[in-house]
Amino acid sequence: MNILRIILILFILVLAIPANATVYHDKMKEALSGKSAKSVALTQALDGHIFAKIELSNDTPEVDEKFEIKITLFSDWLDVDNIRLERPESDYIIYEKFSNTQPYIKTINKTRFAVLTYVSTAYSPMSGKCSIAPAKFKFTINLPPDENKLLNNNLAFYKQLLLQSKSLSAEISTQKFSVNIRETASSSADMISEEETSNKDPVRNIAAIKPVPGAYGDFPPVFHEKPVFAVIRGIFSLTILLLLPNFIHRRRMATDKQYAALYLASTAANKNIGRVVNALRKGAPRAFYEEIFELLKNYMAIRLFLPETSLQDDIIQTSAISEYLDSDMTTALTEILGRCYRIKYSGAECDMNEMKDTYRQIVDIINTLNGRKRII
Amino acid sequence: MKKKTAVICSSIIAVLVLICGITAIMIVKKTSVNTPSKVFDEGCKLYNSGDYAGASSKFEELVAAGTLSGNIYYDLGNSYLRSRKIGKAILNYERASHLGSLTPETAINMKIARSLIKQKIREKNISWLTVNARNIFGTLSFRQLFFFTEVILYVILSCIICLLVFDRRGIFISVIVISVFFIVPAWIIRTERLRDLNSGLIITAPTTDAKFEPSNKSATHFPVYDGMKVYLTRTEKDWYRIKRLDGKIGWIPASSAERIAQ
């Protein structure tokens, strides 16, 4: 029922207001949507680019029932903050004065459309809010012509528009809610064309002052000199420097076959040499030579790409081992292998000194094969 | 094991970036919105009533008291421009754009003020990259630019770390390339802003002769006019050695110019 009444009232008002003064701007409606279902609003064009919207918090005010009226001026241009909305001259009591809060600016970028809703009176207000209790409430707002300068920054800087002097009057009663816009009788300023304005003194064209101080800060800004930024960058740089050798190593492991073989062989040798030392300390020749054989088998397989089963005298003599070792070392290696086979398969005996010599020889051989990457 | 290491590494990197980002925001975003003071209000009223000299003195009072905001500098610039003090107006618009962002109003008014300078000096050796960078990032304040470039820098450094740790490199390389695309123009403007803050001067005297030597007896090299932007290269007693935008160098009395960064 209420909705039907609202629709009916709005329909009557649309018909009542002259066609050129009424604009139901879809985008603006969309921008200002989200009000309570009971509120009722009228949006009208004051001029080509300025719109007035009057909202009532209650669509069916009773006599002496307090309700809220909000007047908002906005524009589809960006800079309208020098429009002055004075406190309405009303023929009825206003119970609460216009509220005094910070301006609220809503911008919808996609449609290049800004709604500036200043809920403030002291600092060049754009909108005012007051509570009234009507039997009948009537008010008029004068928009002085010389204050309503608009600057369109989407166009060239010198182009601007002066709004004609207008009066906004609204009448609200329990029966009716209507808004009319008419030219003030004293109005003399006409719309000034862009060309005319640009030919005049350019200082006249400057955008208006800002009515609020905005966010405070320090000037000159010296925050960039704070050591914390150097520390942050230092942490990042240090992390990169620490990770870089590992990255290089990983890259070489993936691309350099020789490097990968050397690294993996050394790792394997380091692992096995510990077990060899343990066997030596225990004085267990069989275990010692078994570990030596295991070490050589693993190491050679990785380092020189030899099959694990091919660790025989003749292969050692002819394989790549001879490229890295001199003849003495090759002979020593052959002897060690022979000793390994003898002890492993025939159970031959050997003393501690012989084991120590073998250990020294094997360390020398592996260190030589490793080049700079020594295991001990 | 490898997966576990990767998770730990990525967590460390994420925490590192988060800490750095928060620290940067906390330091850079040290601004507060306050209600307008009585003096500011009086300044606005004087301006609206047409008393621009009175308005500028009120806004100057605020600046002297250390109450600084982009809007106050902008309003002060407007008051000076209305009083036909072009140099002072440009100076304050410059300050407004460094403290707050370069709002459309500030840009428009600064352009109007600059159009009133007696001699137009063309900037020397300006690259297309700088021109485009100005178009993209020119409206940001130094604070916003600094924050933006720092965050992008942290992202790039984090991606480099990720490149070193993880084997899947495609995504990190892509992020680095995109970030570099953004950071280069932003860094150019950041450097420009820093240059303005460190050595930017605005001529506030009507006409000043730049001399070959820091002495009144020295021959005149070129004139500089009210509102011109120059860069300070050296100071000597009461003289500034300046470099004009076209690259000319000369000495002017220190009293004839004001530094953008007070």
Outline of the structure:
The complex is a heterodimer of chains A (376) and B (262). Chain A is α+β, with helices and mostly antiparallel strands.
Q: Helix content range of the residues of chain A, please?
A: 25-40%
Counting DSSP H or I runs of 4 or more residues, the number of helices of chain A is 10
Sheet with the most strands of chain B? 5 strands, antiparallel
What is the fold-level CATH name, i.e. the topology of the domain at 38-115 in chain B? Serine Threonine Protein Phosphatase 5, Tetratricopeptide repeat
Distance between the termini of chain A: 97 Å
Largest interface: A-B, 46 and 66 residues
What overall form of chain A do the CA principal axes indicate?
Answer: rod-shaped
State the end-to-end distance of chain B. Answer: 58 Å
Strand content of chain A: 15-25%
Q: Based on CA inertia axes, which overall geometry of chain B fits?
A: globular
Strand order of the largest sheet of chain A: 1-2-3-8-5
How big is the Rg of chain A? 47 Å
The chain-level mean pLDDT of chain B equals 85
Q: Helix fraction of chain B?
A: 55-70%
Description:
The complex is a heterodimer of chains A (376) and B (262). Chain A is of the alpha+beta class. Chain A has two domains: 2-205, no CATH class; 256-370, Up-down Bundle (Four Helix Bundle (Hemerythrin (Met), subunit A)). Chain A has ten helices and 14 strands. Chain A has a five-stranded antiparallel sheet with strand order 1-2-3-8-5, with no helix packed on it. In chain A, strands 4-9-12-13 form a four-stranded antiparallel sheet, with no helix packed on it. Chain A has a two-stranded antiparallel ribbon with strand order 6-7. In chain A, strand 12 (166-173) and strand 13 (177-183) form a beta hairpin. In chain A, helix 4 crosses helix 5 and helix 5 packs antiparallel against helix 6. The radius of gyration of chain A is 47 Å and the shape is rod-shaped. In chain B, the strands form two sheets. Chain B has a five-stranded antiparallel sheet with strand order 7-6-5-2-8. In chain B, 59% of the residues lie in helices and 15% in strands. Chain B contains nine helices and eight strands. Chain B has helices spanning 2-28, 38-48, 52-64, 70-82, 86-99, 104-115, 128-137, 142-165, 170-199, and strands at residues 32-33, 200-203, 207-211, 220-225, 229-236, 239-244, 249-253, 257-259. With 262 residues, chain B is of the alpha+beta class. The radius of gyration of chain B is 23 Å and the shape is globular. Among the domains of chain B are: 38-115, Serine Threonine Protein Phosphatase 5, Tetratricopeptide repeat, CATH 1.25.40; 200-259, SH3 type barrels (Roll), CATH 2.30.30. Strand 14 (215-216) of chain A pairs antiparallel with strand 1 (32-33) of chain B.
